[in-house]
Every structure is written in C-alpha cells, then in structure tokens.
C-alpha cells in the first residue's frame, strides 16, 4: 500500500525539500507493525539527512502517529514527547495538556494524570481486557 496520498493533505514545510527521503517511496517510512528491518532501513536514510532535527521536531510537535520521522518510530517519538513536556521544552495548548479530556502522560504523577489513568485502567478491567 502506498502512502503518497497522505503527503498531499499537509502543505510541505520548507525543510522537507532538503530531506534525504524526498523522492523516495513512502512505503519505506511506513513499515508494517513489528517490521523492524524496514524501520531500520528508514532510520538509516534518516541518519544521513541534513534536516533530521527539523523532521523529528515536526513529528513530535504535531503528534505524527504514522511512520518513521526524524529517525524515530512512533513509540520513540511518544517517549521523547513525554520527556519534552515534562521538561517544559514542549508547551501544548490547554486542550491538549496531560490529564485533560482523557489524556495522560505515562509516568506523570500530577493529579489530573493520575485520575485519568485510573479511569482508563478501570475501563479496561470492566471490558475484560
């Protein structure tokens, strides 16, 4: 499955033209779940990219949930995003703060996150998961 249609939704940022992945198949950067070999190939392309930090920041700030961006998988970006928020390096709008509207940061001990995580866990137990 090709993911080229996804790129047409967002107007490209100026740095994207200089990216090492520009012109490559997007399939390489959107591996199947658990496909570590393809993820490793994508990361190899990213390591030599002159705009890797711009790409990584774009994906983290915009909470990009698909593919390898800036040499990081979604799991790695989630971890980095959490660290950035906890350090105060990434400021989110009030509607996207941890503990708001059913969201929480793993490892955060603030009251909203603890309550939200508790509700999430309770919901999972009720559904038998």
Can you describe this structure?
The protein has 129 residues and is mostly helical. It folds into two domains: 4-91, no CATH class; 93-129, no CATH class. It is 43% helix and 0% strand. The chain has five helices and no strands. It has helices at 4-7, 36-47, 52-61, 74-87, 111-126. Helix 3 (52-61) packs across helix 4 (74-87). The longest helix has 16 residues, at 111-126. Residues 1-9 have low confidence and may be disordered.
Silhouette:
globular
Portion of residues in beta strands equals under 5%
Which structural category fits the helices and strands?
mainly alpha
| E-strand count | 0
Query: What is the chain-wise order of helices and strands?
Result: HHHHH
* Uncertain residue ranges: 1-9
Spatial separation of the terminal alpha carbons: 31 Å
Measured as a percent range, the helix fraction is 40-55%
Profile the largest sheet. none
Considering the chains and any ligands shown, give keywords for the structure.
globular; mainly alpha; single chain
Task: Sum this structure up briefly.
With 129 residues, the protein is mainly alpha-helical. The chain has helices at 4-7, 36-47, 52-61, 74-87, 111-126.
Task: Write the SSE topology.
Layout: H1 4-7, H2 36-47, H3 52-61, H4 74-87, H5 111-126
Helix pairs in contact: 3-4
